[in-house]
Amino acid sequence: MKIKRDLLLSVVMLTPLVFCPYVVAQELKHDPFKKPDFLQHVSSKKIEVPQKDILVPLQGELRAIINAGPRSMANIDGIIITMGEELEGYRLVGVHDREAVLEKNGHRQILTIDE
Questions:
Q1: For residue 62, which phi and psi values (nearest 5 degrees)?
Q2: pLDDT tens track for 40-82
Q3: Please, is 108 exposed, middle or buried when counting C-beta atoms within 10 Å of its C-beta (0-12, 13-18, 19+)?
Q4: Where are the domains of the chain?
């Protein structure tokens, strides 16, 4: 009698473990990553920032300058530009002792000659 009771108790105790994966699989019939229905009308479009608002710093080495007023020049990575000329969208607006001032979309960047 004790054996039958222990066997019955074991079956009762182990039954949930056997069927547990089945129950979990039944509960996951929906996609957990799907946008909820009440949010379906919300646009999932990415907001595009106008290209002019993105400022990428000029990655260049100022190698030399010629400070000659309106005829000043700067050598940036071996490319020589004069006052008012552009390099990668940056316009040379000033040349001073050991530095060149460049401007793009109203933002200024100063390159200096490294020793």
A1: -80, 115
A2: 665 556 666 566 556 788 888 999 999 998 999 999 999 999 9
A3: exposed
A4: 58-112
User: Letter for the amino acid at 65?
Assistant: I
Q: Both tokens of residue 7?
A: 């066997």
3-state secondary structure the chain: CHHHHHHHHHHHHHHHHHHHHHHHHHHCCCCCCCCCHHHCCCCCCCCCCCHHHCCCCCCCCEEEEECCHHHCEEEECCEEEECCCEECCEEEEEEECCEEEEEECCEEEEEEECC
pLDDT digit string, tens, across residues 8-18: 666 666 666 55
Q: How far apart are CA 27 and CA 40, in angstroms?
A: 22
Q: Residues of the chain with pLDDT > 90: what percent?
A: 43
